[in-house]
């Protein structure tokens, strides 16, 4: 996400100075597959990626 204020993000999220902030990402939630058009429902498959909990954190910075 572009156009965010790094200083405000650092303060709000309690990010220590030794860490650089390069990007901010907005993440939504997964809804019911049935709400998609049929062509998109066919493409909807469970992910084999690493769980988000191992990659990101929510809220303020935890040291």
From TrEMBL:
Q: What InterPro entries does the entry give?
A: Nitroreductase-like (IPR000415)
Q: Where is this region: Disordered?
A: 38-63
Q: Which domain of life is it from?
A: Bacteria
Output the Gene Ontology terms for molecular function: oxidoreductase activity
Q: Where is the composition biased (Basic and acidic residues)?
A: 38-53
> Could you identify this protein by its name?
Nitroreductase family protein
Q: What is the lineage of its organism?
A: Bacteria, Bacillati, Bacillota, Bacilli, Bacillales
């Amino acid at each position: 996400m572009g156009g965010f204020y790094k200083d405000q993000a650092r303060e709000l999220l309690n990010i220590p100075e030794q860490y650089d902030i390069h990007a901010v990402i907005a993440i939504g939630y997964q809804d019911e597959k049935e709400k998609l058009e049929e062509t998109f429902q066919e493409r909807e498959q469970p992910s084999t990626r690493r769980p988000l909990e191992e990659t990101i954190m929510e809220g303020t910075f935890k040291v």
